Amino acid sequence: MKLSAIIGLVAAIPSAMAVTGNGGQIVNSAVNRYRDIINKESFVAPVDYKRGVLKTSGSLQGLVVSVESTDDTLGLDTDESYILDVPVDGKATLKAKSPYGALRGLETFSQLVTGNGNSKAILNTPIHIDDAPVYPHRGLLFDTARNFYSLDSIKRTLDAMSYNKMNVFHWHIVDAQSWPVESKTFPELQKNGAYSAAQTYSYNDVKQIIQYAKERGIRVIPEFDVPGHTYIVGLSKPELMSCMNKQPNWDHFAAEPPSGQLNIAKPETIDFTNKLIDEYTKLFPDEVFHVGGDEVNRNCWAEDPDVQKYLADHPGEDVESLLVNWYSKVHDHLETTGKQAYTWEETLFHSSYVPNNKTILQVWIDQASVQKAVSQGYRIVSSSYDSMYLDCGHGAWLSNWDGNSWCDPFKTWMHVYNYDVAANITDPKQKKLILGTEVAAWSEQIDETVIDPRLWPRAAAMAETAWSGKADASGHVRTTAEVASRLHEQRFRMVGRGINAEPMQPLWCARNPGACNLP
Amino acid sequence: MKLSAIIGLVAAIPSAMAVTGNGGQIVNSAVNRYRDIINKESFVAPVDYKRGVLKTSGSLQGLVVSVESTDDTLGLDTDESYILDVPVDGKATLKAKSPYGALRGLETFSQLVTGNGNSKAILNTPIHIDDAPVYPHRGLLFDTARNFYSLDSIKRTLDAMSYNKMNVFHWHIVDAQSWPVESKTFPELQKNGAYSAAQTYSYNDVKQIIQYAKERGIRVIPEFDVPGHTYIVGLSKPELMSCMNKQPNWDHFAAEPPSGQLNIAKPETIDFTNKLIDEYTKLFPDEVFHVGGDEVNRNCWAEDPDVQKYLADHPGEDVESLLVNWYSKVHDHLETTGKQAYTWEETLFHSSYVPNNKTILQVWIDQASVQKAVSQGYRIVSSSYDSMYLDCGHGAWLSNWDGNSWCDPFKTWMHVYNYDVAANITDPKQKKLILGTEVAAWSEQIDETVIDPRLWPRAAAMAETAWSGKADASGHVRTTAEVASRLHEQRFRMVGRGINAEPMQPLWCARNPGACNLP
């Protein structure tokens, strides 16, 4: 067997690779970034560790990037498709409809380049790739409230997302434990709620992150989780709260300590929330805005003296009607800002409230919710805890409890990869309502010391299924045995790029595909 | 309540703290190390985050370290006790019998120093500490064969061990997947068996690690695991092997791929092993030498044509008698080197071989083996997988299997802490045979990208129970609720010292002791 029969032709890459593009600021900055990556990197996949220097058949003179439109609006409708042609000789071309399609193609191109002795090459040329994502929402939930993350660690995570063509940074920016983000409307929230003056995000920090993400084709969707998960608000506004830090029986009032919810019997909590919405819908430009709505605890309100007094004065009302009214006022207000609401599935499925049909539901509890939601006409993103919660499997974290976590076991990359958000959904109209998937890194047991290995390469496994779907062009559903080599390669590439992705197996297995399968 | 009633007196620490000692090279190098740590560090425990500047009552002029003997022999009998006195004013004194006791006292002293505004202080002075370990073996098993670790990451791990008064680095240096260590007797083992020329440990590297460990009071016990776990030997010596890399049904022949065992029917494998023992018992000075002996697979031999032929020619013998003879020849030879054998529990409990009673058994499968072994007069170290295997709980790692690992779930720090190696053992003579405990970091799913958070702070939880035992002086068995604040403190201290220990909880919980307990 001739070598060319195995690998096709090999294009040499000159030591200073010319990448040129014309697509406005987004494409220009990406071209600079990828020129650096391609020139610096000399990556060889683990499976090729014994490969000798390959004879080249031609020399690639450059990569020319062009886009149909330089419009850099980034949203759910952004076209991320691209067409990449790499000849054996001469210039490669990358064509895209939008700047963000060009970014995806640049990432693909960078992954084609491999070390070849002291030089670099692209194997199997000529190459023609016509590529587009299956799902428009390929996200990561990042929780900066349970523990704080520096801007550097957020930027590194955005880099890593871009290496995997992920496009939504769901910034779960505040929660019960801390309020790191600046508020100009209520400065005391940050002042009293941040872990320290150093553990904060100013307006400038937020804008910097949004810009950094945008240059990588990543939308930043902020989440301000109300009315539960709000203990930290009470440090500044105790008059708005119910069941503040009940101890020791916090579990009667909240999913985790400290308990505390906005008091839904008080119209002031709607005013407060709507003012936050007014402020942060301006700071965060994305068309989608997440308003939480998860894990509200009825006991917290039912046992609150103010709520009890209100209900005594208003026969016919109850906690449920108060909650529906509350959700409704907040969602209606959000709609006036022009944003689409993004909300946890409980808002629909665990309450009597019926959100408007522009609302995007984030499913996490029950895979059946995906089907239920799309059959009711809602768009969904799935973060099914059983497959997408990358923090899980780390055991319980309550100090006095030697037990498992509610969401054990650990979600392996195989388990993440095998998840099918569209399982059992056949109606094409309903399928279109599936926007995608989102891995979550809840931070009770994570901070920046460990975020890289906790996310990667497992988030990359999700990213592939969200970009390429479950099946290849022939309809064959990809198996993890087939994917393993590719994911090893991507893991080692990411480590080379400065992301501390954890190893999947002994290096021996990475080098011997198929040898570490269960018979 | 007066402040002094809470915190005792506070001794100020001058900006350049004088630490002086007289105890030979070990103490002198430790004194330099801790002088640097104490001068550099300005640590405040998370629980004290709101503490204002404390008024000092005196000023500490220095710490004088003295030892009874400068003999720097490090072994099972090393005396690690120390007495530390910290007055409010003047000089603190640290007295120890051996240099290694002084090291432990220096670590304790460094942990007493806390930031106090722009200055430093020691709280609750005067302090008198009379301290000694409960167990002489407080170990970490480190596997450099499934994946490779750089010298830097090993040294960082040894630093971290010293911060937790751990004293045994069990270096599981080779295994089926790779042979990184130099052999002068069989150079081909490393040449063919290392993952790459860069992923190796030369004699000089090994000596450097042993010296680095010794200066931290840590013994290095190497493990050369025979006769199983030896596929990698077969790349150089195929004639010595049985069941080399059987595929795809490796699971019939080995606990994990690749299969391969030294052929116990061939006396050449005994010669080979004994030559390795001759070589490496010289390179590694410790009095204890680990010869593996775990997870041998009888099918591997029973189905080997050479073994079958041997048994056909030798009626009355069988695989079991061959194995007993093999163990016996190897252990007898090891004894002639003057070393004490350290071996996995299977050598006794899963074979008919009866090791001599100087042998130390490492229990990992069954907690009942601890009792069985000590009742038979063997010394033991426990690495009970259910509590001490820190790699577990990460799910399966075979590429095509979406399942749990055999040793799920994850071992939380609470679970590690709650382990009692001496459970149900009351006879003082038997109790003395318990040398201690050892956490294990098997590296199928670990390499240096993730070793820090995978080990710490959980190994610190083991370290405390191995140093201080399960109960305090009054007999009260410590609970994890009581320990949590101390371990948080240690975790943050380690992060400050450059160890990427993972967070145990939201910072909010670290700052609010007791608020994150299960009711």
TrEMBL record, chains A, B:
CDD domains: GH20_HexA_HexB-like. Gene3D superfamilies: Chitobiase/beta-hexosaminidase domain 2-like, Glycosidases. One of its GO terms (molecular function) is beta-N-acetylhexosaminidase activity. Residues 135-469 form the Glycoside hydrolase family 20 catalytic domain. InterPro entries: Beta_hexosaminidase_sua/sub, GH, Glyco_hydro_20_cat, Hex-like_dom2, HEX_eukaryotic_N. Residues 24-112 form the Beta-hexosaminidase eukaryotic type N-terminal domain. GO terms for cellular component: membrane. SUPFAM superfamilies: (Trans)glycosidases, beta-N-acetylhexosaminidase-like domain. Residues 1-18 form the signal peptide. It is an enzyme of class 3 (hydrolase). The active site is at E295 (proton donor). Keywords: Glycoprotein, Glycosidase, Hydrolase, Isomerase, Signal. Its EC number is 3.2.1.52. Coiled coil: none annotated. Belongs to the glycosyl hydrolase 20 family. This is Beta-hexosaminidase. The gene is NAG1_5.
